[in-house]
Predict the 3D structure of the following.
Amino acid sequence: MRRPLRIVLLGPPGSGKGTQAHIISELYGVPVITTGDMLREAVANGTEYGKIVDSYMSRGELVPDKIVNGVVGERLNRSDLENGFILDGFPRSTPQAEFLDGFLEEHDLKLEYVIHVTLDDEAIVKRLSNRRSCPNCGEVYHLVSKPPKKEGVCDKCGSELILRDDDRPDVIRNRLVVYREKTQPLLDRYMEKGLIKEAPGDHPMERLPELLKRVLG
Ligand code: ADP
Ligand code: ZN
């Protein structure tokens, strides 16, 4: 048995963190915790709290740290993480990184790796504006590189595909600004701890398992 893997994926929106997270999950049998999906679920429930979350997400702003730390803290305390976890989209700010450090310390755990997924802004805007998402099952498509079999319809569950509010070009630009300002500084923090591994966000998909196995040793 290999030791537990505790991994953070850090990178700009649309860099392909989610794709890499799921490949690592399959390779090593470790669950993925995707804050974007958890927050979108809260929005879909239509509660007052969901409306507050939506007001940040649809503008491409970060949902307040207090809310996100609460959601993630609850998830991290569940019992299915003894083999480790892959955090996709968390932490995204210094207070969130401090929260994670506190949690790990309290439970006498350590991060093994922080994978920095890189992609330049032009490629990001192109990728996200061509992205279509299934609001029902969460499957993600790309109009050019991964179109659904039937136009506008999810292959997996038959629901109608949408362009997420925050995948509109002006909102994408704002997400990039927010990334530079709030999330990018975390690279230094993890660099100092010697945890950073680089993974290009435009690596050919079929060769990602091989790349990630190499990166993770
Ligand atoms: P991407 O990685 O492509 O930006 P996500 O689905 O991870 O897409 O995130 C979408 C939105 O969800 C973010 O723009 C932000 O509003 C919210 N969000 C996700 N994770 C966090 C987080 N850790 N802290 C604050 N907001 C978050
Ligand atoms: Zn679907």
